[in-house]
Amino acid sequence: xxxxxxxxxxxxxGGGSIKITQAHLTxxxxxxxxxEVLEAYIKATGDQDIxxxxxxxxxxxxxxxxxxxxxxxxxxxxxxxxxxxxTDELARARSMVLIQSALFGAIAATDLIPNYKVSPSKLICxxxxxxxxxxxxxxxxxxxxxAGPVIDLRSKAYADxxxxxxxxxxxxxxxxxxxxxxxxxxLNHFNKKAKGQLVRAALTAAKEPQTxxxxxxxxxxxxxxxxxxSKAITLIxxxxx
Length: 241
Known about the structure:
Elements: E1 2-5, H1 31-45, E2 56-57, H2 58-61, H3 65-71, H4 87-96, E3 97-101, E4 105-108, E5 112-113, H5 129-132, H6 134-140, E6 150-152, H7 156-161, E7 170-178, E8 184-186, H8 191-204, H9 212-221, E9 225-229, E10 232-237
Parallel strand pairs: 1-3, 1-6, 6-7, 7-10
Antiparallel strand pairs: 2-5, 3-4, 7-8, 9-10
């Protein structure tokens, strides 16, 4: 089972001494396109230092609601405010979580990346990312996901950036909050927390889930519910924020 998640606009600063030019990102077949997009990014932003900038694991670099939920972080001032995945959970994330970066393409959760800022829907120095990324992903990345299942938690912008082929056993996810009276409301921005909690449930489970049924069981243990209709998953939470 793999989770395919979006990055976040907000990112942590700092990192280690390994540079992006020294790091080996997952799906090496994407490297040529990565180099082209990175060069365009440098020309567009003037960020000449990105090649020498410190790097850290992508799942630690990205912050925000989705990633806070994956790490199990609570509100500021609470004992869990600075929670992070432990060594075993990070090891599981390495094989279970892919992140769809507009700058680097699909990367593993533990791939080392620098800080950057790129929108998936904007041109970078004349490059349309929606035209650049799909073909290399289909050739070098998505073919390796054939075993499935893939839980696609990406936002529409990132799903449109590199659509998954129809032959992939992929499931899209829509989040609803269920009220005390049984009524439901679809969540938009606030869906990120529930999606992060679902990923965390899989990363922290005693046994790594391999099937949708096993993922349902993981979700239930953390107060979430999954309803599956063909390739569409409804993720139900009781938290609206």
